[in-house]
Amino acid sequence: MRGGFKTKLSDLPFSFPIHMDALNNPGRGDVSEQDAAILETVVWKKFDSWVLPMCTVIYLLSFFDINNIGNARVAGMQTALKISDYQYTVAITLTLIPYIAMELPSNVILKRVGPDRLLPAMVTSWGIVATMQGFVTGYTGLLLCRLFLGLAQGGVLPGVVLYLSSFYPRERLQIRITAFFATASLTGAFSGLLAAAIIGMDGIGGKPGWAWIFILEGLFTFAFGILSFFALPRSPETACFLSSSERCYVVSKLKSSRVISDDAKKDMFSWMEILRALCSPQVLLLSIVAFLNGASVVILFPFVPISESGTQLVGLAFFEPTIVAGLGYAGRQAQLMSVPPFVFAFLASMISALISDRYGCRGLTVIFFSFWCIIGFSMFYATTSQHAQYASLFFSVAGVYAVAPAVITWIVNNSAPHIRQASGIAFSFIASCSGGILATWLLGFLSPGPNYAAATITFIIMSIGMIVFASLNLLYLWRENRSKAETRLSTAKPDEPEHLGDRSAWFIYTL
Question: How many CB atoms lie within 10 A of CB 112?
Fold first, then answer.
């Protein structure tokens, strides 16, 4: 397979997330081998130059607009609105409830409505709500804004992941998912810098600095939402930036790896496929990992998207500026000191994704960086040194950012057909955000700072749980692949029942 894995598949000790018949039918049609090699290079670069940046910006804006309440809190919002720590935690929880409620239905209807319509509509609507947060004058107004913000944003991240997975073969997917996840880590760093700059607008137009954080970032989101109605392609088949030969090659390539179904009926809505996704062991095990990962990183930074990885990530997203401030930094310095851990997380997650795509080792990636989370949280708990606690953030943040895209890609790679895949993605994010609710209470009210002792112990236990459940999933998929290999020796593919999806003996799970 040119442009992909150069080693023969039969020589490798692991399996790739593609079907066996895709190996025997690469789907190049009448395209010569030389032309196929050129197309293989060109088409993915075009998607990387158009589709991936659009998805990344959508994700980053959702990241900014739902998590900038942490920056606004440090800048004086909580004092200005006269709300307690308990009320602040309630406001965050109220964001997550409609957020969770929207993830499954929006993902199920995404293909029918069209991602080129639904995703821009979400961006535009939450941009309006995000801007309005800058005009609230009391607690009730803040609660209403957070409620509608969660409602508008709930389907964004699972929708973007599902949308992106329809443009790339399975063995090329994790580096792309990681690209926008990891870029968010840089945005987490940039968010602190931007907030520090915007705070300087305090008093302009009669608005405090924290209000301008909401207003400026929300207006930019609204403008980009309008632009994305015209720039976001609906599917690979209709991408205007591809030539006819490129389009035919991509469609054939995606069909051969079962990213696009040969039969449109297989992708139609089905309650049974939603149920099958919910009952899939790999979805259940990895949803637990997503919940646990979301729960742990909570203790570190408030710039992590709530939809990314559950409890840990949500906590990082909403409370990190507060935690950094508790380590002895204040004001703009607290915002600036949150930058370096995210830069390190970006490098770690990108390198790990390259290795994972190259060697197909999703499970080992999750396990390896779960150990990093344990190291980081243990350091934070075991020492009272501010420098050591700050250093611990590098392990925790990098661990969470590397685990999140690996877990999501692992689910995408091992779920088929479309509705089952869309549901599996949504279930993992529902679990993740549920972990976020736990995180907000652990760090916001139940486990007081600056040491967050009870929360940190909880996150260490959860990180150990991530290793356990990821290992169980790895073992399960390995045993299933062995069983499927035996079935292929005794059964012909035409004799296999239809609509098995990833349960087909000719669907090899990626490990």
Answer: 10
